[in-house]
Fold these 3 entries.
Entry 1:
Amino acid sequence: MATFEIRSLVKRFGKFTALDGVNMSADAGEVHAFLGPNGAGKTTTIRCMLAILKATSGTVTLFGRDAWKDAVELHRRVAFVPGDVNLWGNLTGGEVIDLFLSMRRAGKPDKARYDKYVSLFDFDPGKKCRTYSKGNRQKVALVAALVSDAELFILDEPTSGLDPLMEKIFQDSVLELKQSGRTVLLSSHIMSEVEKLADTVSIIRGGKVVENGTMAELTSKARGKTLEELFLSEYEGAG
């Protein structure tokens, strides 16, 4: 059974079709990269997965269950990190992490695991969130996700605002998730990051998935091109 499976997903806003028959899936222990420029449909797809938006038609299942109908139960098994994290300014980073975990009914994080990621990402959880830079706000969301017991990690531009050292730590953390059998959906504009982490890739354009396959399949199809060159070639002449 796939960890998540999206079949013939359509989402319309009035007369505008944001998603037009999207198909995508990933199994346990897989990192699936979801690529596309701003406005291509990535965030809309993710919002349908998280039951923030209801699909016009098609199906979205997580762990074999309907993502919309069973959202409350499923969210306890999912961790989400957006690309632009907004926090409560009067709470400390540590308090926000506790709050995020309590929303998932996950309880207090394992102290050793919590200390590990706080140290790796090098931020002070005792400071008020209003004092944090964008990068530190991202770290709060990343630590909250990584210390959880989630089985599916949905990461939408998660390294936005992080410096190269922190990006490397993030990549190592994702590889650990993969090795432990967790599933990761990674939306990223950093092609080197995708090439290091992804097992499978979907490229979306204008609400339609135009490429879908393993990294090996896409590399073979690229015929010597890099993933970035293949990605860009999908948009040449599009408009």
Note: The radius of gyration is 18 Å.
Entry 2:
Amino acid sequence: MNDLKISDMQKMQYELWEKHKEKWSPLEPKFARNSLLWMFEEIGEVIAIIKKRGENEIMSDSSLRKEFVEELADVLMYFNDVLLRYNISPEEISEAYIKKHDKNMGRDFNSEHSNYLKHK
């Protein structure tokens, strides 16, 4: 499969919502909180695999890796639900991501972390 763009993921997630819209909550900001909570639950499943099976097994066991990647895909699906519920376009999140990346490229994380610990 191809490398998905954010717009592709949002379109796919919208199609899934459209199929289930009679049972699922509307794509409105007031329901984004639930999508975030479900996303955190999926992140917990990712963490559980790491804790229980470890990095070496994730990298060497193809069936475990498939399960791990599927859980990460669930995280992305709920993330895209949040974007859709807040009507955040692919362009808007891409612009913010690029700006944050540029900012991070100029940061000294070690120094910031040391300063943070000193002031605690």
Note: The chain has a mean pLDDT of 95.
Entry 3:
Amino acid sequence: MNDIIDRKKIESLLPHRAPMLLIDKLINIVHLKSATAIMYVKKNAFYVQGHFPGQPVMPGVLIVEAFGQAAAALTAYGIDPKEYDNKLVYLMGVDKARFRSPVIPDCELHLEIEAVRSHGKVWKYKGTAKVDGKRMADAQWSATIVDKK
């Protein structure tokens, strides 16, 4: 697919809203298999003021959250809308998260994600975060699809 999912479409797929909606678009989408999420890491982001004053760094935990959001959007986009109606994707676990270089605000973070496998409502993913082609972080994680309450 050559689809591009913009922020408005992401908001229709995920329950997250600003300031916790971290990803800005999805590109390079391969149906239920892979995609690249783009996140514009800005100087005025909510986490910059306190992490760390005078030397801002995007928290690693937010990179992991962005991975999860990208995977949830990819999955929600690929599943039949009738099946996904009234559902959410919840993060279940994170494995092998590695932070290789700090992500400094005023950059474009590319989150290359891949669905490794699915078994029923449980999905496993892996991803690499890059800035200007340089690997900043990578992780593996799992998520499940649950009913909205």
Note: The radius of gyration is 15 Å.
